[in-house]
Amino acid sequence: MVFAWADEGSHLEVDVPVVFKGEDSCPGLQKGGQLKSIRTSLKYLCPAESIPQKIEVDVSNLDIGDKILLKDIQVDLTLKLLSRNDTKPICKIVALEAETSEPLQA
C-alpha cells in the first residue's frame, strides 16, 4: 500500500498488524496453553514505497511460559521499530487456570 501524497524516498510512521503463525505445531498450545496476544500491531518508520502489510510472528517453538519480545522480531532492515523498549513482549503462551472440581463442603 503506497500513499499518493508520499514522495518516493520519504519515510512514514505506520502501524503494521501482527499476525501469528505456527499455532498448529506450538508445543505450549498442544499442552493446553493459550496464546495471549499483547500487541496487535507494531509502529514502524518505513520507506513509503515498501510498507509491509503485516508482520508475521512465528510461535511454533513456544512452550508454556515462553514469550516473544519486540527485539526477537525479524523484519526488513529498511524498517525501524518505533518503540523505546524492545524488551516488551508481543505475545506469550500462558497456562489455563485449572478449574476446581472439588465439591464445596458445608
TrEMBL record:
Entry-linked PANTHER family: RIBOSOMAL PROTEIN L25/GLN-TRNA SYNTHETASE, ANTI-CODON-BINDING DOMAIN-CONTAINING PROTEIN, RIBOSOMAL PROTEIN L25_GLN-TRNA SYNTHETASE, ANTI-CODON-BINDING DOMAIN-CONTAINING PROTEIN
GO cellular component, one term: cytosolic large ribosomal subunit
Domain of life: Eukaryota
Protein name: Large ribosomal subunit protein bL25 beta domain-containing protein
Ranges of residues in domain Large ribosomal subunit protein bL25 beta: 12-95
GO annotation, biological process: translation
GO terms, molecular function: 5S rRNA binding; structural constituent of ribosome
One Pfam assignment: Ribosomal_TL5_C
InterPro entries: Ribosomal_bL25/Gln-tRNA_synth, Ribosomal_bL25_b-dom, Ribosomal_bL25_C, Ribosomal_uL5_bac-type
SUPFAM superfamilies recorded: Ribosomal protein L25-like
